[in-house]
Amino acid sequence: MKSEEVTRILENAIRIGKGVIRYGSVASYIPELAKADKNKLGICLYTIDGNQFETGNTEDRFTIQSISKVMALCLALETFGAEFVFDHVGVEPSGEAFNSLVELDNRSNRPFNPMINSGAIAVASFIEPKVSFEEMLKLARCFCQDDGIVLDEKVYHSEMSNVARNRAIAYLLESKGVIGGNVEEALDFYVKMCSLSVTAESLASLGLLLANDGVDPSGKRLLDSDTVRVVKTIMLTCGMYDGSGEFAVRVGIPSKSGVGGGLLSVVDGKMGIGIYGPALDEKGNSIAGRKILQFLSSQMKLHIFAKKD
Ligand code: GLN
Hints:
Layout: H1 3-18, E1 42-47, E2 52-56, E3 62-63, H2 68-80, H3 82-88, H4 102-106, H5 117-127, H6 133-143, H7 153-160, H8 164-175, H9 183-194, E4 197-198, H10 200-211, H11 225-238, H12 244-250, E5 255-257, E6 262-267, E7 271-276, H13 287-300
Antiparallel strand pairs: 1-2, 1-7, 3-4, 5-6, 6-7
Helix pairs in contact: 1-13, 2-3, 2-5, 2-11, 5-8, 5-9, 8-9
The structure holds glutamine (GLN).
């Protein structure tokens, strides 16, 4: 596809995305997130052959929130191995909201998957005793090719002051024997990793790393091929919470959303896409981001099962 064509498609995508922003709202259960400007929108697309396309607010910083679950899972898989991780956390879509604890209490003794809060808090509890938050921050900067990533203290404190639900999840995990160590430390690590400040550009770089089998643009392997395959599969089946099935049918690109308005997408073997659009739909996914990805998928034939011509 020619560059001018991609640029035109992105311009149309922004226009289409802007058209649905009014139907969404910014997250408010973490008060600091409610301050975001819901009209912001940026798309950033980095291809494996080195092209970069950007439009809109691609350099605005916002907190990564649930997209950090992808990096934490990568780290846990590489540190402890898939057997250990999936002995404690499942790989099935939960069909419930990201912050639900009903299915954990009633239907299972371990979290359904690592992309929802219960699964990610469990993953954080494995990582936390072995990896300091500073090391996690370094890793995020490296995966995202972005030295500007820092801990957003305001968002971190705002979430820690409103953490009752995640604390309840963490103690339920302890009661089920999933968390063995210090629950409060695990919870703190989880909230800190959610409070890393990124841009649409950082997310596109992370997407590119995963699209390129864990190899960064300089040719250095940062992640094992098996880790990347597993993570992309779980993003496809569980990355958009209880909207994952519909998203897989309509868009068909492994993606992960965060309530800060970020969206990370991986077009395997082709490109990474990062989007910022803080107006969310009722499931907590960027409303404009979803629409944009659907448009890009159809215009650029990016669906995982798109007919090859
Ligand atoms: N830190 C947020 C929470 O735990 C992350 C949720 C999200 O991005 N969906 O509620």
